Amino acid sequence: MIFDEAVTSRPLEAIAIAEREAGNYECIVAAGGDGTVHEVVNGLMRAGGRAALAVIPLGSGDDFAKLLGTGTTIRTFDVGRIASGADVRYFANGMDIGFGAHGARNVGRVPRFLTGFGAYLGALVLTMVKYPLLKIHVRLDESPAFELITAMTAVMNGTTFGGSFRVCPDARPDDGLLDLMMVDAVGRLEILQLVPKILRGAHAGDPRLRMVRAKRMRIESAEPLLVETDGEIAFERANQLEIDLLPGALRVLA
User: Fold this and answer.
1) Hey, what CATH topology would domain 91-248 get?
2) How far, in Å, CA of 243 to CA of 240, rounded?
3) Whole-model pTM above 0.85?
């Protein structure tokens, strides 16, 4: 096997590398965590998705890697796309606003001795101190828009985020649909009650949340939204999000 190595030295550099090299290689391997995968996928999508993606999971959560097998077969996965004004980002695994997005930002604030799932639990504790309840307007596909006050709304292509939180356990990355979990305006005690259920993927049917599927959606908010995609902060002050799915846009080695 012949390969070339490229080492990143700054955030978002992998986007530029993947976009530049997508036409020169049959496969680009992301060696890192979900953030590295996120950047490589964004580069591949900007380049038209020509090269396949492979992953060597070296991160704390490696949620996208959980969707892959250990074989050498090329499969096609869907890719999520978010537009906020003129800015566009893609996601391989999922995105969210509210509690999860603030938790993703807080991961970088936990003590360094906490790693892996421990870092995510530390971030959860920090987020419990202060998290927003968001008043948003949502439109799913061609359905009428509705208003929601939410502690967290997640839009998933994969099943899991934060390493072990099975947010949408029935999601499939190749079914042409996005899976949503919309949590009501719950307080801290109710979040503590929901966390064990979400870890087990046993929260469907809980009256404090809704699980739905859609191909595209619009989310609007008078207050700026912090938006997390694949564990990375993609937008910090978004008032409108147009989210859709690109079916079969990503070739993966799985």
Assistant:
1) Tumour Suppressor Smad4 (2.60.200)
2) 10
3) yes
